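Board notes, transcribed. Complex of a protein with iron/sulfur cluster.
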Amino acid sequence: MKLLLIAPTVEPERFPKGGYAFRVANYNLPLLAALTPPDVEVRIIDECVEPISFDGGYDLVGITVNTPMASYSYELAAKFRQRGSPVVLGGIHPSVLPDESLLHADAIVVGEAEPVWDGLIRDFQRGLLRRLYRAPQARMDRIPVPRWDLMRNRRYIVRRALTATRGCTYRCEFCSIFSAVGPGFRMRPVADVVRDIEAGGARRLVFWDDNIVAHREYARRLFRALAPLKVRWVSQATFNFSDDETLMKLAYEGGCRGIFLGIESLSAASLREANKSFNHVRRYRTGIQRLHDHGIGVSAGFVFGFDHDDPSVFERTLEFAEQAGIDACNFKLLTPYPGTPLYDRMDREGRIIDRDWSHYRGKTHVVFRPRCMSPDALLAGFKWVRHQCYSWRSIFRRLFNSRTSLEAGIPMNLGYRYITRNEDPSPGWNPAAQEQEGECAEPRSVRIASHWGAL
Ligand code: B12
Ligand code: SF4
């Protein structure tokens, strides 16, 4: 039996020929391949690094689907099905919208593949494939070593990605984690993580954990176990990582050179709205400094479009990022992904204006009606802040103020600069330059003054 596993991309502009920026190896498909019975011949195509070929005569095709890629994945599924290859869809989007996905597939998996994938393949081989496989949460002590040997390894800048934990202890309004991996925070045995890294044999890794420090004691054990491996890695964490000196020290010794922090907003009101009050705006600056002092670069996620965001939010964020020396900024438009509490609220309030999933990329379209500015102003401000932040002036200012982990900071900024300009050459405009009218209107001078007071 021949099985093809596909990771599609809707971002061909991000991966032009020879452009290696941000090519990080995919994790879920090598994992799925490792769960596949050994008598099955498996091929993986990650569209970020190679085009999809429709003519392999595959007996079964599996596609991993997130929301922005849903429509495109359905088109791919139709093409394979026309050629006689049945298609199974899995991942976050089929898990939250199973009825929609079932219209485009022979079968779907809702939830994590580990508990059901082997059975699905056996059902298929016996001609008994069911339409829907609903998986319970996977056991963390049964995660196999991913089949990295099936990847086009040379085409990635970071060749190994994995997770030590799954889930998050928080429930931010806009976040899909709860619907992606279910409730609770689960940890893999540290020995299994070490086993995977040794088997992977790479010196540079990404841990795609949602919050690698959520369980402090586990994180300490993990970081101690990583130290002898002499690997360098980046991961994701909540801001309170920066409260814990011991943990930051152990993380650095274990190879951590950069951390993605969901800062999201400089406004306490917006953080409250997002159910993220555990981020304390007043601690941002010292927290970033402490991470830098420990040799850990900071990549910060910022979201624009909260109900409390007025048109000055873009320039205030840019100024803060530069002064605090944030090594890399990841800006996103607030997007109500299906399955999130934000989606339910926006839907209830009748504020969703666009349900074309291909627009749910968090950077190309505003899909809801913002409270304090027009959708056009939000999109323009978003483009403006991205372009400004990746101007040479801002890159220089941020990296100069950081002076940490430049071996990661410089290529990351060059990568982001390349992507930002390649994705959308339009520089946008700063909505704060125009005075706002309406329910959120406040003189600009007052807005700016109250902002600096809060920081
Ligand atoms: C890694 C990652 C990325 C990487 C992907 C790089 C790569 N080469 O893999 C990058 C940085 C590029 C990325 C980009 C984006 N991402 Co992202 N990303 C993740 C992250 C952190 C981890 C995914 C992962 O590998 N998990 C580990 C594996 C093992 O789990 P898994 O993927 O869920 O797979 C399991 C099951 O879903 C299932 N499964 C998955 N696929 C398949 C396929 C088949 C056939 C079957 C049977 C089963 C199955 O079985 C797997 C094993 O249990 C998740 C957060 C999360 N915890 O899921 C967000 C997440 C998936 N991303 C998200 C988003 C929104 C995005 C972006 C739109 C950016 C943004 N606005 O944040 C872009 C979209 C890019 C695009 N073109 O589609 C959302 C998805 C929301 C949604 N409804 O789609 C998530 C859930 C984050 C969040 N907090 O909300 N992302
Ligand atoms: S945004 Fe981060 S902290 Fe909030 S629920 Fe998602 S993963 Fe957890």
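The chain has a mean pLDDT of 93. The chain has two domains: 2-140, 158-454.
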